[in-house]
Amino acid sequence: MRFKSILPHLRRLFVAAVLSAAPQFAAAQSSDIPSWLRAHVGESEGQIAPVVLRRARALYFEKVRAGEVRNPCYFAMDATRPNDLGHGRLGRRFYIICEARKSFRAIAAGHGGGRDLRGLANFENGRQCAKNFGNAMDSKLTTGGPYVTRETKTSFKGYYRAAGGQAALVRSFVQFDGEGDAANARPRAIGGHAAEVLRNLCLRKEPGSPHADREGYVPFGNLVIYAGGRSNGCTSWSPEDAGLVIPIMEKDPTTLYIYPESDDIVAVARAVKAGWLLAGAGLYWNAACLKQIHAPKFWSKETLGPILARYERDHPPPPPRPLPFCKR
C-alpha cells in the first residue's frame, strides 16, 4: 500500500526527467498558427505533427527577423514517419509551407540508409522506417535539426536510354548548412536532390556531345529512381517533386527543420524502455514506425566516428578503376 501511494510521485519525477532531456518547444504556440494552416496539423497521412510545425515556424521566423531569409516559403520534414508504405505508395513527410500564400503541401522524401559494419556496429535503416540517426562522417545517416538551404550545384551525370533514343541526366544538388548536431552538414555534403542515379556506367563514343571528354567519350548507364528507397544521409525527393521543391530554394535561401533531434531520440528511447506512453510524457514519434523499430537510436560522431575509422582502416577501398567501354 505504501508503495502504491508513492507511484504518482515517481511518475511525475520520471516525466520531468524525460522532458528535461527533450528540447524545449519553440516559442510559437498553436494559437499563433493561422486557422487555414491548423487544418493541416495532425498525425494523419499528409498532415504535419504539432511539434514539427512549431519548431519549423520558430526557425523560419527567427531567420527572417535576423535578415538571413527572405523566402516566403519554408520546409519541414518528419523523419519519424514511414517512407515506403508498400504497393508503390510513398509516405508524405516533407512539407512545403508558404504562409503568405496560404499554401501547404506534403510530399515524399527519403531518409539515410545507414550502414552495417560487419562485426563492429549495425546502424542500417530499412526502407520504411528510420531507427538510426546520426551525424558522423560517412555514416549515411539523417541528422535532425535546423538547416538553411544554400547554393545549388547542377551537374551532368551521364546518358541513359529513354523513349525515342537517349536522354541526359542533369541533377541539381542543394547544399544545406545546419546548426547543433547538424553543424557538419557541409563537410558531410548533406543537402537535397532528386532520387535518381545512373548505374552500370560505361563510356560511349559521342564526340558531338557537349558533355564529351577530350577523347570524345561520355558516360552511359541505366537510370535508377529510388524515391521509395534510402539516401546517403541527404534529403531526396522523386524527380517530379524535386522539380517543384528545388526552384523554390534555388536562388532564395530558406529554412528546413528536420525532426527528430538527438535529444528527442534519447528521450523517446528512455520513455519506451520505461514503458510509458509518449503522449503522457509530452513526447512524439510516429506510432506506426515506433511499433516497427521498437526504439530509436542516435549515433553521435563522437561515438560512431572511431568505429567508422577502424572499419575503414581494416577494409580499405579498392583502387579506383576507369570506366569500361560500352560494348554496344
TrEMBL record:
Signal peptide per UniProt: 1-28
Keywords on record: Signal
Protein's recorded name: Murein L,D-transpeptidase catalytic domain family protein
Source species of the chain: Candidatus Rhodoblastus alkanivorans
